[in-house]
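Q: What would this complex look like in 3D?
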Amino acid sequence: MKRTLQILNELEGSGVGDAMGATFYVEPLLTFDLDVFVVLSANVGDLISLAPLYEALRTRGYAEEGECVLVEGVPVQFLPAYNALLEEALREATETLYEEVSTRVVRAEHLVAICLQTGRDKDRERVRIFREQAELDMNYLADVIQRHGLEGKWKQWTP
Amino acid sequence: MDTVKPDIARIFAAKEARRHKLAALPFPEKVRAVVCLQQMVAPLLRARGKKVRVWTLDPQATRSIPSR
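A: Here is my prediction, written as structure tokens for the whole assembly.
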């Protein structure tokens, strides 16, 4: 895991999200892949492609395995930052230490907002866990929710 | 309406307290816990035909997680 994070640190504009991102803030959540959001440069009109990233990892000896790339024993799933919320989440991700390795992790408040936006049953359950266990900055969260038009879902999920 | 008996309520409260304790662990400990969960769940998922890979942790990161 430490080596995995060292490799990921070499990729600019990335941040750990989803279940492992949540695990930074709440109880350990079962997952089999490490989800990493990445900012990919694309010209207007171009399709965003993970191919250059996969190629860069392949040249370092890390092979694709299904939807993931196996990096030092950990299947890593790369997810392009495909909207304003994810771009903001990556810009404001915080540096956290994992056994002396600094790694960028999406803030808890952004992870909550991403759950609201994604909207699956498991996201709703995760929002509940965040509210119960994480130290959320509620003012910051309110701003994120408002900025990205997620107030309706927040009200619906947090009666 | 059914009510939860005090003994059962105590068990639920203990479970809740354990989850908060787990949430407060340092991240490397949580990663070890995730790998333990993977080891427990992987055989069940594989039996259902799902392909899963249990993570390989760095040798120095394989100390056991705290018990209950």
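A: To summarize the key features: Confidence is low (pLDDT under 50) at residues 64-68 of chain B. The two ends of chain B are 33 Å apart (CA to CA).
Q: Very helpful, thank you.
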